[in-house]
Amino acid sequence: MVAAATVVAVAAVAANAVVAVVATVVATVVAVAADGAINISFLR
Asked: What share of the chain is helix, strand, coil (3-state, %, to 5)?
């Protein structure tokens, strides 16, 4: 039972890490796309 709980805990941590990485990548891509689509001088 302890081993099963450990596997579940590790899987949960791994899933959270993957979600965090994907969210970061998506945010970065969106930011880069926005910078490319919007004139920076217009924002300033």
From this structure: 90, 0, 10
Token digits for 32?
Answer: 């880069």
Higher pLDDT, 30 or 41: 30
Classify residue 35 as exposed, middle or buried by CB count within 10 Å of its CB (0-12, 13-18, 19+).
exposed
Using a cut of 0.90, tell me whether the model's pTM lies above it: no
Query: What is the number of alpha carbons within 13 Å of residue 36 lying toward its C-beta?
Result: 6
Residue 12, pLDDT > 70, answer yes
Q: Where are the domains of the chain?
A: 2-43
pLDDT for res 24: 96
